[in-house]
Amino acid sequence: MHKNPIFILIAILTSSSCASGQVQFLEKEDRIDVMYQEKVITSYQIGKDMLKPSLFPIKATDGEIVTRQFPFEEIEGESTDHPHHTGLFFTYGSKNEVNGNSFWNLHDIPPGIQHIKVLEKKEKAENGSISTISHWIDKNGKAILEESRTMTFNFQRKNSYSIDFEVFLKALETDVIFQDTKEGMFAVRVADWMSEESKGMIIGTGKYTNAQGLTNEENIWGRQSEWVKLEGTKGEKVYGLAIFYHPESVNFPTYWHARGYGCFAANPIGQFGFQKEYLEAPKKRNLEIQKGKSAAFGFRVLIYEDSKEHKELQAEYESFKLSDL
Predict the structure, then answer these.
(1) Angle at 163 between CA 152 and CA 41, to 5 degrees
(2) C-alpha to C-alpha distance for 78 and 59, rounded to whole angstroms
(3) Cα 149–chain centre separation
(4) 3-state secondary structure of 95
(5) What is the DSSP track for 212-279?
(6) Coil, strand or helix: which one is 316?
(7) Which of 68, 149, 201, 289 is 20 to 30 A from 192 in CA distance terms?
(8) How far apart are CA 207 and CA 215, in angstroms?
(9) What SS3 state is found at 311?
(10) For residues 87 and 68, what is the distance between their CA atoms, to the nearest angstrom?
(11) Interval 260-272: pLDDT, tens
């Protein structure tokens, strides 16, 4: 356990069963499959052609995929905009905001975020964790940031599982400045059917709601909140995805880059890009990580079946904010 209790907790997916099972990590050439009850729940995509590590696909434990499949796979009628929206990812900057580099809107390498190695794997019944190192590589091929990430998968909740992310960004040989932009930071591109208004032919059924009770993109995008949920319907079944931000993380509470078309992102660094939409005097804010120092971020994402009431998610947040991972 780290002395600094900052973490990124990312995905809780429901199951039709809460039978015990073993969490396993199967390392392959281009990914690490996360297995539970001998089924793939998600895969940590780290192939040499990947522009950044991503979790794809993310499944509910009934097998339903809640992330958009493009650009990994092309599905008839599914949207094909924003090819840099690759499942669930953690990155920042589309117009050279990170020491003159862009890591959000990636199309070629360099720059890019490169998986370096697996530090540790722990496989247990009902939970397991994997710790990794990645480097943020600038356009000259030089590593400017080291990303230390621990992902803990926990299936101890009834009809759900959690993925905890504890992420630290360490500046390596020079100070690293993150300039203010809306394009970041912790994001998931949800399946078109889960969006509020899909850009593809699949009809979106989703609706955002934040901790303050506001609903829909128009009231949530660019606002600060402790958490936001998105619920949508597939067939006759409701699925939800909620992202929480930990209060000991950088710049709590986070702003939300939550778009109706399905880009569901928490961006604690950006400010001006959001405030200018609704404040007369928006203020710019940069994050500087000094050489040898680190910044820490903590999130939780829940993916669940059936609609959850506000009080349930607020109780989840109250428990989460006390967590010491």
Answers:
(1) 105
(2) 17
(3) 12
(4) coil
(5) TS-BSHHHHTT-B-SEEEEEEEETTEEEEEEEEE-TTSTTSSPEEEE-TTSEEEEESS--HHHHTTT-
(6) helix
(7) 149
(8) 7
(9) helix
(10) 7
(11) 999 999 999 999 9
What's the CA gap between 219 and 221, in Å, rounded? 6
Nearest to 262 by CA among 241, 238, 235: 241
In this structure, the number of other CB atoms found within 10 A of the CB of residue 196 comes to 21
Distance from C-alpha of 295 to C-alpha of 250, rounded to nearest angstrom? 7
| The two structure tokens encoding residue 79 | 């949207």
Q: How many CB atoms lie within 10 A of CB 211?
A: 19
Count CB atoms within 10 A of the CB of residue 248: 16
Residue pair 164/45 in contact by the 8 Å Cβ criterion: no
CA pair distance 118, 131, nearest whole angstrom? 6
**By three-state DSSP, how is residue 317 classified?**
helix
The amino acid at residue 54 is: S
Distance from C-alpha of 200 to C-alpha of 38, rounded to nearest angstrom: 33
289: which 2 tokens?
A: 């990580």
pTM of the model: 0.92
> What does the angle CA 259 – CA 196 – CA 300 come to, to the nearest 5 degrees?
60
